Amino acid sequence: MKLSRSWRGRAAATIVAAPSGSENPVTQPIILQISIFSPMNYPVPVARHKHGSIVNGPGQTVQQNRIFAIAPMMDWTDRHCRVFHRLLSSRALLYTEMITAKAILHGDRQKLLGYSAQEHPVALQLGGSDVDELAQAARIGADWGYDEINLNVGCPSPRVQNGQFGAALMATPELVRDCVSAMRQAVDIPVTVKCRIGIDDQDEQTALDDFVGAVAEGGCRRFIVHARKAWLEGLSPKENREVPPLNWNRVYRLKQDFPDLEIVLNGGVLSVEASESHLDHVDGVMLGRAAYQNPYLLTAVDSVFFDSPGPPASRDDILKRFIAYAEIRCAKGVRLHQMTRHILGLYQGEPGARAFRRHLSIKAVKPGAGVEVLHGALALMEETRGAHAALVA
Ligand SMILES: Cc1cc2nc3c(=O)[nH]c(=O)nc-3n(C[C@H](O)[C@H](O)[C@H](O)COP(=O)(O)O)c2cc1C
Questions:
Q1: Cα–Cα 20 to 30 A to 11, which of 32, 244, 324, 385?
Q2: Residue 73: CB within 6 Å of ligand 1?
Q3: What is the pLDDT of residue 312?
Q4: Lowest mean pLDDT among 16-30, 128-142, 169-183
Q5: Sequence ranges of the domains in the chain
Q6: Residue 155 annotated to the active site
Q7: Domain with residues 46-306, CATH architecture
Q8: Which string of DSSP letters, residue by residue, matches 233-269?
Q9: How far is the CA of 288 from the centre of ligand 1 (A)?
Q10: Fold topology of 315-392
Q11: Could you give the CA distance from residue 155 to residue 168 in angstroms, rounded to a whole number?
Q12: Is the pLDDT of residue 2 over 60?
């Protein structure tokens, strides 16, 4: 409690930071881009600053500091998924899957960290609890051109607990503070934390305030809070996303207690409209499963959150743009299914949605499958729509 109180008196720092130069050939440094795709599938640059601040003319900015993010999701938000999401929203902040600091230090960095320029703004989520390892991994992430480094303090999986990180770290705020402090010293991009409202039998009120107060002392200005506890014993990670009750009010109160911090609410938000209503209480919203399972909802993000028109947005247009991307990646040896598995929900709620999923699930996994499978899926949807229109006419 003492720590959080002592924090409260301080002035806020602005979270927007200039991106560091990139040593990574696949990224474009300094000037990030809104991805409006040209026919060649290259992003067309539009002047903007990072995260929620568009340059509208000399000295003018609009819509600062509203955050809409798509959650880090292991096995889901890989680079192909993120490119797909970027086609649906130019402005959503994207997150990688969690990557452990150790993996980054010792593993295949191209495989772990490689991404496409059009993904910006994109944050790298790290897992770990070793101060030096995290600082080094953060530095490497910044060198690769990521826009933000996020520390995972929310994952309840037993494997992660064995490594003494993820949600278990909520019990050791001072260690997280030290990790954040070391990471901040290592990079000049924002270092943020994604946490729960508590773990196990922690008191949601005091434990969360103490945690956030301490970690803010390490220099974290943005907290993404999954609005339910993690129960570290007896629940699977999946159950831990469903069983502990949601408590959005607790996150709202956190913002009241720490008005100068950016608080982003996560957990159980199902639509962009619902996200907008949370903005009366917090600075931003992060969507996970809803965005992945019903990705077309993301087409509303740019206008609702950022007052900007966003990319052209019929489902077929999105699919055509994704085909252009998949063609390039297939030529580089990526298996079609690795990409198409993320787009199965594109036509959710539309006539033919099931046939679309079935077509891709069966055909994209075949050895040697190429973008003709996606062209076939597009033709199938056009046909289905024609037949449906004739039926209702
Ligand atoms: C398949 C899956 C994998 C996830 N992996 C991560 C992860 O790597 N890092 C993390 O911080 N959270 C992870 N999460 C949790 C989400 O980021 C998010 O906090 C959670 O799903 C609640 O948000 P939602 O109700 O909008 O889905 C994962 C969730 C899912 C469904």
A1: 32
A2: yes
A3: 66
A4: 16-30
A5: 46-306, 315-392
A6: yes
A7: Alpha-Beta Barrel (3.20)
A8: SS--TTGGGTSSPP-HHHHHHHHHH-TTSEEEEESS-
A9: 6
A10: Four Helix Bundle (Hemerythrin (Met), subunit A) (1.20.120)
A11: 8
A12: no
